[in-house]
Amino acid sequence: MGMIIQHNLTAFNSNRQLGITTGIMAKSSEKLSSGYKINRAADDAAGLAISEKMRRQIRGLDQGINNIQDGASMCQIGDGALEEVMEMVHRMTELSVKAANDTLTPLDRAHIQQEIRQILSEIQRVDEVTEFNNIKIFGAGADPITNSDGTPFIEGNIPFEDFSFADTSINTNPPYSSTSNGNMLALQAKVKDPNSPAASKDFNLLYGNGGTSFGSVRLTYQQGGKSVSSIANLESDFKVSGYSNQGGVATRTLTYDKDGIKFDVIQKAKPNAEQKKYELSYTVENKCDTPLDMEYMFHVDTAYNNNDVCESYYTNQSRIDTARVYKDSSYMPDLSGSGVYSTIPNSFSIVNKDAALAFSEKIEFSGTKPDMLSVGIYYDICNWGYYDNTSNLGNTTTSQDLGFSAVWQKKGVTKGGKLEFSFDYGIEDVQKDSDLKKDEIKKANGQAVINTDAKKFWIQASSEVNDGMYISFGMIDLDTMNLRNLDVTTSDKARTSLVKLKNSQKHVSELRSHIGAQQNRLEHAGKNQANNLENTQAAESRIRDTDMAAEMVKYSNNNILMQAGQSILAQANQTNQGVMALLQ
Length: 584
Prior knowledge:
The model is unreliable at 168-179 (pLDDT under 50). A hairpin with a 4-residue loop joins strand 11 and strand 12 (277-286). The protein has 584 residues and is α+β, with helices and mostly antiparallel strands. Among the domains are: 50-139 and 467-538, CATH 1.20.1330.10; 215-440, Beta-galactosidase, Chain A, domain 5 (Distorted Sandwich). The longest helix is centred in the first third of the chain and has 55 residues, at 45-99. Helix 2 (45-99) runs antiparallel to helix 6. The protein has 8 helices and 25 strands.
């Protein structure tokens, strides 16, 4: 190579190699200081993805072990309570044996009966107040089984006449409320609780919250020379600005005021006690200078007993089991295709045709027909985007949770202008509902009761949705144990009590065995999850963590190379100094 000074290629090469070594040294330093050999996705993209999946599993397993320990603690609480119940059963057995002896006087047996009554009261109290983390664990104290919308699971039929309008102390989200923004209404009936025959619980129909039943407004207007579309939900985007309840009519004003757009929604609800329905009216008034195209959607996730399966809706004695949209020809957007119908029905009724109650859920457009009506899966039809792509139309509704959405529209509403509409919503006696096809309706049998079987508690054992187990504690109320009327006031009654107490002892022993078996299972599950956690952590560590010894060897090697590179670079820079001798 000649004596060239314009480009010091030797120094360039040495500097490039030194830069590579410096970069490797920096990565080694990062790995050694952080303890991780993957500090960013570029270090190992596939390894990072695998490691993050394992971290999710590790975090889930760690919490799952804590959950299992909580479940075992809950079992210990239940077993401890049953241990004392067993002692009380033994004491009553002892007293019954004593009372069965004819050497006692009636007064003696009366004193024995007094102690037995106190023991029975304590057993009932144990059943009702035994808790873990403020959660009642035995059947009578447990919450009733509920549908997905939170309503009690009703077995049997509720007479139409039993329903009345809920007051604000019971219904947390009706138009009566002066604070809630939801649009739901409430009818309630008293339903017997089999665990407390003297008591009853309120079953709410036409009841829900903003999570599944709510109103919303879609606005279209011009802003900055562009067409803007926005959605305002009553549950989250409005404030209650006015409320009154006069003459049996509840009136509420909700105000929307954002980004220069302001309008009011005025709701009026008049309960019709005889017909068990609400007469509803709405006024949407523009309060801003911008002309608005308004669409108001009244949406309901219907509540018809066990309402997640087998619901149909009827209109004009025709049963419909598929999702449909009914729309006026002028409604925007221009929907068409299978499942879209041009004639909006005057009314329709929702019912479970295979287990109908004494009533149907009834919607009547006796005031102003909507511009569009949609009936189908509730979480589909409340989404405005559903009507821009109606690919789900025609899907069956009989295995899903049914709902309906009614939409009224008015274009070009200027300041002070209003969109107004009204309709009726409530329940109808099945025998009088003209929309139903009577010969298809099979009524549920028996008196209505709330199902309060022994509650099950799910113990989540990891981050996988189905990885876990149910635990239960059974029922120890006096009715279940057949001890409510335990009587030892005569010798014969005392001997009969011995049979009842023998069965009660067997029942409590079975529950204790069941709880003990569950606790053993939980302990085994905890050990297995701890083993999984340890092995998963080890596997994740091999992928993610730095092997300090191996990395230190690399670091030392590169340190030597860096020192050599620096030395060679210095010499390369000195080499061209010899050219100066030729210029002298």
